[in-house]
Amino acid sequence: MAAYLLRRLLLVVPTLFGIILINFAVVQFAPGGPVEQMLAELRGEGQSVLGRVTGEGGGEVRAPASEMRAGTGAGGDAPVGTYRGARGLDPAIVAEIERAFGFDKPATTRFMEMLGGYLRFDFGRSLFRDRPVVDLILEKMPVSISLGLWSTLIIYLVSIPLGIRKAVRDGSRFDVMTSGVVLVGYAIPGFLFAILLVVLFAGGSFLQWFPLRGLASPGAAELPFLERALDYAWHMVLPTLTLVIGGFAGLTMLTKNSFLDEIGKQYVVTARAKGNTERRILYGHVFRNAMLLIIAGFPAAFIGILFTGALLTEIIFSLDGLGLLGFESAIRRDYPVMFATLYIFTLLGLVMQIVGDFTYTLVDPRIDFEARR
Fold first, then answer.
1. Under 8 Å CB-to-CB from 69, ≥6 apart: which residues?
2. Which of the two ends of the chain, N or C, has the fewest CB atoms closer than 10 A to its terminal CB?
3. Per-residue pLDDT tens over the stretch 181-194
4. Longest distance between any two alpha carbons in the chain, whole Å
5. pLDDT band at 69 (very low <50, low <70, confident <90, very high)
6. Both 126 and 239 in a single domain?
7. For the residues 22-41, what does the mean pLDDT come to?
8. Does a structural domain hold residue 1?
9. d(CA 164, CA 328)
10. Which family does this protein fall into (predicted)?
């Protein structure tokens, strides 16, 4: 097993390199990069530079110093951020903006410098927030980790027992009723359910039982530990419930079908013929085999909830996490933040797949990855 894990860890390096290379190449041909956006703003075609100093969401957003100094164009003196109409820009200003964003260098040079920084986990500075990317990621990570961890944990704790019970009582009234509930939960989009929760329980039109913004109340840092924990749980109820409703349906049906498939196999018939109890058969024989497929989906489920699943949830509940950071960075073409979040999630996904393979052997020691050809 040690040699297999070592090979998988070594395979992470070329995989990361290939993903970053492909995305870097695609971005080079994508229109509307940071330089183009800045030039549009200087021409008066976009949001003013000065208006962006205090960014959306309350966070400080600063343009590079060269933007603030580029105060004149070919048409005469005018402060940055004022309307310039159709007047052109001095080529020197364009060159200075390109230098400030690092686009005065060839693409290959920029790519190699980026890789060198990634080896040291140095992701540079945000183009539009003027802060180290690492600081931004560390600031947003607790929100996304909280959502992903608690949601995945609750989904598995609910879905696996429910799926097992549905498999054991297949075709019963309990199975039919729970299948209806599961299908309704699966059919409702997560963002629509989030809006429904806001309307019903977060002061939308009816009740105001839960807060709508952030993971802590103002002044919560001064509270005792138990009160801080309760305040945190109070803020997490609606976002977590949103992700759980959308995620437990698929895992419940996967668990049921996996157990049904194993229950119908010959070794179960043999175990019954030997006088084993149904509980012994279910948890001593069927469980180990049926859980392999469910464990295989854990890394994808966790990463999906952590990033793609939590994106709209973070927006609706005003949770400033990695999903929202990555989305805003893509819209603003903040390449250092874009590639850093891509790198982090790719690395985390690859590691979680290795963890999933290792968990295989814990559930079923008969699995030997060393013997695979």
1. 96
2. C
3. 888 877 877 778 88
4. 95
5. very low
6. no
7. 74
8. no
9. 41
10. Belongs to the binding-protein-dependent transport system permease family.
pLDDT-wise least confident of 38-52, 106-120, 231-245, 285-299: 38-52
The answer on 97 and 147 residing in a single domain is no
Q: For residue range 317-342, what is the model confidence (pLDDT) as tens digits?
A: 878 887 778 778 888 788 888 888 88
Domain span including residue 125: 36-132
What does pTM read for this prediction? 0.68
pLDDT tier for residue 89 given thresholds of 50, 70 and 90: low
* pLDDT score of 21 more than 80: yes
Residue 3 lies in a domain: no
Q: Angle at which helices 335-363 and 133-168 pack, to 10 degrees?
A: 40
> What does the alpha-carbon distance between residue 1 and residue 370 come to, in Å, rounded to a whole number?
6
Closest CA to 66 of 30, 33, 90: 90
Helices 322-332 and 335-363: angle between axes, nearest 10 degrees: 140
Instruction: Judge whether 165 lies within some domain.
Output: yes
Last residue of a domain, one of 114, 132, 150: 132
Q: How far apart are CA 130 and CA 124, in angstroms?
A: 10
Is beta strand 72-73 parallel, antiparallel or unpaired with respect to 76-77? Answer: antiparallel
Interatomic CA distance for residues 341 and 136, integer angstroms: 10
Instruction: Tell me the pLDDT of the chain averaged across its residues.
Output: 75
Question: 361, 358, 350, 339: which is closest to 34 by C-alpha?
Answer: 339
HSE-up (13 A, CA, CB side) for residue 145: 8
27 in any annotated domain: no
Judge if 174 and 229 occupy the same domain: yes
Burial class (CB in 10 A: 0-12, 13-18, 19+), 106: exposed
How high is the pLDDT of residue 12?
Answer: 85
Residue ending a domain, among 97, 113, 132, is 132
Q: Rg of the chain over CA atoms, in angstroms?
A: 26
Which residue from 301, 288, 299 is spatially nearest to 252, judged by alpha carbons?
301
Q: Are residues 103 and 173 in the same domain?
A: no
Please check whether residues 174 and 320 belong to one and the same domain: yes
Domain count, the chain: 2
Q: Are 110 and 146 in the same domain? A: no
Instruction: Check whether residue 268 and residue 148 sit in a common domain.
Output: yes
